[in-house]
């Protein structure tokens, strides 16, 4: 089944070129089924690139998925035309009375900024609280995973001296968890961050469990017992060239970045990347939609139960 996205969204042409079936809202209205309602709170500066990455992963499912793109504030985005935001994004005020089967909150390049100094932190807190009442299952990616841990549980991230960048091997710790169904015992995933929270800290929070981790990158996937919160500290959505582009961007900015680990062939940045994470990323999103969203959400979203409030 297709994903339903706004007509004329640039991602539509990209996905169609990859033989991924999408349709606009007018056609979706004629389908006599109950589609999944999924929101994407996109915090990344280059929103168009991130849209394509997330939508690609959501498309690999037999479920029909209606997608709403959500913005955290009205400030002009850094690398996205204002016209694009006005045409395709919803202000939070426009959707705060709506219920969603699933919500994805992306990362953000805010590594060294205290949460309270983030310009939209108050809005972010409001959305996190809203999701507790209005969303069946929420997936937090990278910075958003740490931000949610801080807001809900008072857990503060630590910062590395050097950025963790590269593609790392991870071990499945809970092979019977439905989010990991079909995973090999070991798999690869990209990371690009300074922040981290130790696995034992996640596991010390009642109702949370680390289900995949890496010796180099630490905890990667953390889930709640009720399946309504998923924390992913890396970037399963990344394109093959994303770490390449980040590396050369930082070089040009004289940030002296380390070469992303286990990414370029022979660790040589003049050679092509070794792409070995996309199958796991697709499978994770498919499992999330199926087992954490579709099989747990009520048919009538108005019957969505409020999540038990996390305890600090």
UniProtKB/TrEMBL annotation:
Recorded metabolic or biological pathway in which this protein acts: Amino-acid biosynthesis; L-methionine biosynthesis via de novo pathway; O-succinyl-L-homoserine from L-homoserine: step 1/1
Site (Important for substrate specificity): 192
GO molecular function, one term: homoserine O-succinyltransferase activity
Compartmental location: Cytoplasm
BP terms from Gene Ontology: L-methionine biosynthetic process from homoserine via O-succinyl-L-homoserine and cystathionine
Active site annotation, chain numbering: 142 (acyl-thioester intermediate), 235 (proton acceptor), 237
Key words of the record: Acyltransferase, Amino-acid biosynthesis, Cytoplasm, Methionine biosynthesis, Transferase
InterPro entries documented for this protein: Class_I_gatase-like (IPR029062), HST_MetA (IPR005697), MetA_family (IPR033752)
GO cellular component: cytoplasm
Enzyme Commission number: 2.3.1.46
Keyword set includes rRNA-binding: no
Residues given in the record as substrate binding sites: 163, 192, 249
A Pfam match: HTS
Reactions this protein catalyses: L-homoserine + succinyl-CoA = O-succinyl-L-homoserine + CoA
Function in brief: Transfers a succinyl group from succinyl-CoA to L-homoserine, forming succinyl-L-homoserine.
Protein name: Homoserine O-succinyltransferase
Gene: metAS
């Amino acid at each position: 089944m297709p994903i339903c996205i706004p007509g004329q969204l640039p991602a539509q042409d990209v996905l169609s070129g990859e033989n991924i079936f999408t349709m606009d809202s007018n056609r979706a209205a004629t389908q006599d089924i109950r589609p999944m309602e999924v929101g994407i709170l996109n915090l990344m500066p280059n929103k168009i690139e991130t849209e394509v990455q997330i939508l690609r992963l959501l498309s690999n499912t037999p479920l029909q998925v209606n997608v709403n793109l959500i913005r955290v504030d009205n400030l002009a985005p850094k690398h996205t035309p204002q016209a694009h935001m006005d045409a395709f994004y919803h202000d939070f005020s426009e959707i705060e009375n709506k219920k969603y089967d699933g919500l994805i909150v992306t990362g953000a390049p805010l590594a060294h900024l205290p949460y309270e100094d983030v310009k939209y932190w108050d809005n972010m807190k409001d959305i996190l609280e809203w999701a507790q009442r209005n969303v069946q299952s929420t997936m937090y990616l990278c910075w958003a995973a740490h931000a949610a841990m801080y807001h809900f549980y008072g857990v503060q991230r630590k910062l590395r001296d050097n950025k963790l960048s590269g593609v790392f091997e991870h071990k499945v710790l809970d092979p019977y968890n439905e989010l990991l169904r079909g995973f090999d015992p070991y798999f690869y995933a990209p990371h690009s961050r300074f922040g981290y929270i130790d696995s034992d800290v996640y596991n010390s929070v009642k109702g949370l469990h680390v289900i995949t981790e890496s010796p180099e990158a630490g905890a990667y996937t953390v889930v709640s017992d009720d399946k309504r919160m998923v924390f992913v500290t890396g970037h399963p959505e990344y394109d093959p060239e994303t770490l390449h582009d980040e590396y050369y961007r930082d070089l040009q900015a004289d940030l002296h970045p380390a070469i992303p680990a286990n990414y370029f062939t022979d660790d040589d940045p003049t050679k092509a990347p070794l792409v070995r994470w996309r199958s796991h990323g697709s499978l994770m999103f498919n499992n999330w939609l199926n087992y954490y969203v579709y099989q747990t959400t009520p048919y009538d979203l108005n019957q969505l139960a409020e999540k038990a409030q996390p305890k600090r």
